[in-house]
Structures are given as structure tokens and as C-alpha cells.
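Researcher: I'm preparing a figure for a lab meeting and need a structural model of a single chain. I don't have an experimental structure, so a prediction will have to do for now. The sequence is pasted below. Please return the structure as C-alpha cells so I can convert it later.
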Amino acid sequence: MSRLHFASALLPSGWANDVQVVITSGAIAEVTPDVAPAAGDERRGIALPGLASLHSHAFQRGMAGLAELRGDSTDTFWTWRETMYRFALAMTPDDVTAVATQLYVEMLEQGFTRVGEFHYLHHDRDGSHYVDPGEMAARIAQAAEASGIALTLLPSFYAHGSFGGAAPHDGQRRFICTVDQFAALMAASRKAIGHLPDANIGIAPHSLRAVTPDELAAIIPLADGGPVHIHAAEQVKEVEDCLAWSGRRPVQWLLEHAPVDRRWCLIHATHMTDEEISAFAATGAVAGLCPITEASLGDGIFPAREFLAAGGAFGVGTDSNVLVGVTDELRQLEYGQRLKHRQRNVLSGGAGRSTGRTLFDEALAGGSRALAQATVGLVPGARADIVTLDAAHPSLAGRSHDALIDGWIFAAGSGAIDCVWAGGHKVVEGGRHRLRETARQRFNAAVQRLIA
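Model: Understood. Here is the structure written out cell by cell.
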């Protein structure tokens, strides 16, 4: 058992002062506001619940910044994808462990305490299958265990190169499965994460480009009640190709043909009509937004104002992991709306409301729903995932309550986090993860070899 005492903490009921939190077996056992610190309490300033990065491709952290040289033709998502394939084809299992560990260390240092790993690097470099179908899933599990981040593993089903069951191209050979192979992969993946506390599993049909309707129907039961994530409507070309294949837009097709409900998370969903926005919001499914990656890849701007007005739920993810941070994703989400609508505080939710607080609350609720976490936040029964901010940071000075979140998201950059507890273990102190140097050395060695 451990006891923490915070001068100020964001509870489900709102901000409270002088809050004591008791942690037992990795979970919050008691939360008591308005009490003086007791002997033995660890005393900190400002406490927030950790957030989830609901969408991550861990291996892509290794190529961050390597696709910023323009080629001879127009540079787009589709040309970036070729760079990604080349990098993915070079990685060994040890490389994946090193890269994912570094990523998860960075996530924890930046306020993410759970990751939804949309995992599709399944096979060996030549496309042959490992003896253990869960070899690469086990590497993700090793990284999560070493770093302390909670893991929701989302093995991705990828069978085709484009709509209508088109044959995959050679760059996708490490991803490709039949339905039967994917069932074996799911069983092996469950085994790979079985020893991790608080880990869970869902499925991730990669996209309507990569699965046929029959395959989608066949794999959904493999989620066994867990979350279902799918990329949808990220690019205009994807929408156009889906219309040519089916006469429907991607989100429209899913809403008409798949059992989309609160278990589902539609990643990106950038390009939707008004009718799709309303229908998507009504399902209770979560929009998995990755604003940094969506900006990096030139995807477009999600219709967040309209989606929230329709009652939609969203969470945030780090996707390509070109830049990792809670504040980066939330700030980019709001700033994209400001650029689109030429207004300020677009997503605040109403007059007199804090934009930072609204973004934070929505991302906490949507991320937990998308990753099937029934209880989150600074509340008894939740996993003890706690982030503390440095009250002496210049962008937090003189502020209290919601103004602290506004200062953190919109002004503080990456230096305001002091400590992070993940599953009750203090993994970050003074802004530094306990494995920072070891993880960095292994990551650097792996990436130097891959680039060479």
C-alpha cells in the first residue's frame, strides 16, 4: 500500500484540494479530499488522471522524421506509405522491442498511461510466418511490461491491397493473414499478453481497403466482446476508391453493413458528410483522432465541432508517433479547428468553459471507452494511473483548477510533467522515466543499424 497527497487534484466530480489517494495492488483504493497530509504520505502538487493513446503503430517511432524529403512528384500519404513499408520490412523482433520500449517510455513521460497498439507487423521480413504466431505481439508485450504502460493490444487483420479484395503488394507481406491464420494469431496474442496486469485485447480490421465484407464479418467474433478498431475515411482518395467499389463512402458503408456500436472505434474518420457525422455520433462509437499524424500526413481536418455538437465521443492517439505527447495531440486538435473556422476556443463546449478542460475530459472518457476500460480517473477501483504537474513551471504559475490544464496544453510544452504513476508504480520522476537512458541506448543502436 502507498499513500499520496496532492495539493490539488482533478476528480470525476471536479477539482478538489488536499486530496489523499491510497493505492493498493496497483489500483486506487481510497480518495479523500480536504484532509491534511499524514505522516508517510508522498506529497505532490497538481494531480490529473493519465490518458490513453488509443491508436499507436509502435514500429513507426523508429522512422519519425525520415520521410521529410520531397520526391519528384507530389508528396502525399501514399508516398509516405512506401517509406513506411521499406522501414517495416527491415525490422527484426529485437528492433521492434527496442523501438516500442522507447516509444512507451516517451508516452509515459508525456502523460499517456495506456496505449491501444494497432499491431500489424506480424510476420518475418520475407513474409514467412514465425513458429509462434504471437512472436511480434510478445515483443509489444515485453515493451509494455518494461515501461509500465498499460496495454490494449489490437492485432490487425490485413488481407488485401485495396478495395474489392485486390491482391496485396509485396511491401505488405509482413501484415497479411487469412481468416484462419488471424484466428491463430489472436489466440497466440492473448497468450502473449496474459501475464500483464491490466492488459486486454481487441481486434483491428485494418481498413475497408484491406478486408472484404465476408472477412470483416468472420473476424468480428474473434474480438470476444473486446474493442473493434478500424481505419476509416482518412484520405480523400480512400473515399473516392470506396465509392467506386461500393457506391458508399467508408463511414457510410460501415454504418450500413457492420454492427458499429460503443465497442467500436473509427480511426480518423476525417472525411464525412453531415449525415455520416450524425449517424456515427448516434452509435456511441468513438472517433479515434490523431491530430499530429493527420497533420503530418496531410489527411485533412476532422469535423470536430460538428461531431461534438451531434453528441459524438472522441479519444486521441499518437498513430505514427512522429511526435508523442498528450498536450501535442489536444492542442493540435483545437488549433486545427481554429484554422478551419477562423475562430478561437472552438471546442470549449460553451461560453465561460475552459477549452483545455473540455478536451481533456472528452479524451479521457473517449479513450477509456475505446480501450474497454470501465473505470478510469482518480476514483476508487481505477488503475492507479496518475500524472502530476510541476506547479513551479512558468506556464502554470499563479493558476488554479481549469487554468492549470489550459496552461499545460496551450503554453507549457513538454516540460510541465513532474511524476507519473502507472498501475501504482512511480515510473516517471522529475520528468524522467526510470528506463530513459537504457531504452534510449537500445533504440539508438537499433535505428542506427536500420538506417545504415
